[in-house]
Amino acid sequence: MSTEPAHTGTCDTPRCDEPAETITPEGYVCEACAAKLAAHYESTRERDADARGER
Ligand SMILES: [Zn+2]
After folding, report:
1. For the chain, domain boundaries
2. What percent of the chain has pLDDT over 70?
3. What separation in Å is there between the alpha carbon of 36 and the centre of ligand 1?
4. pTM higher than 0.85, yes or no?
5. What is the 3-state secondary structure of 1-55?
6. Using 50, 70 and 90 to split pLDDT, how confident is the model at 20?
7. What is the whole-number distance in angstroms between the Cα of residue 46 and the centre of ligand 1?
8. Which of 10, 24, 33, 41 shows the greatest Cβ crowding within 10 Å of its Cβ?
9. Ligand 1 centroid vs 54 CA: distance in angstroms?
10. What pLDDT is stored for residue 47 in this prediction?
11. How far is the CA of 50 from the centre of ligand 1 (A)?
12. How far is the CA of 3 from the centre of ligand 1 (A)?
């Protein structure tokens, strides 16, 4: 058994062919897509906090 982490090779984002770098809830994606996903989750969390009045 290899101890190498599983590599899918390329980004899981449709139509993105960058080399995958980071694992996210959306899959194994490149650095640029990971940054976009992180920003998306950040804004979603802020919006949820606003909706609950937890500021
Ligand atoms: Zn990508």
Report:
1. 9-55
2. 84
3. 9
4. no
5. CCCCCCCCCECCCCCCCCECCEEECCEEECHHHHHHHHHHHHHHHHHHHHHHCCC
6. very high
7. 24
8. 33
9. 33
10. 92
11. 30
12. 25
Under 8 Å between Cβ of 18 and 11 = yes
> For residue range 30-47, what is the model confidence (pLDDT) as tens digits?
999 999 999 998 999 999
| Average pLDDT in the chain | 86
Inter-residue contact 29 to 40 (CB < 8 Å): no
pLDDT at residue 17, rounded to an integer: 94
Tell me, in angstroms, the distance from the centre of ligand 1 to residue 1's CA. Answer: 29
Between vectors from CA 19 to CA 15 and to CA 25, what angle results, nearest 5°? 75
CB neighbours of residue 30 within 10 Å:
19
Q: How far is the CA of 12 from the centre of ligand 1 (A)?
A: 7
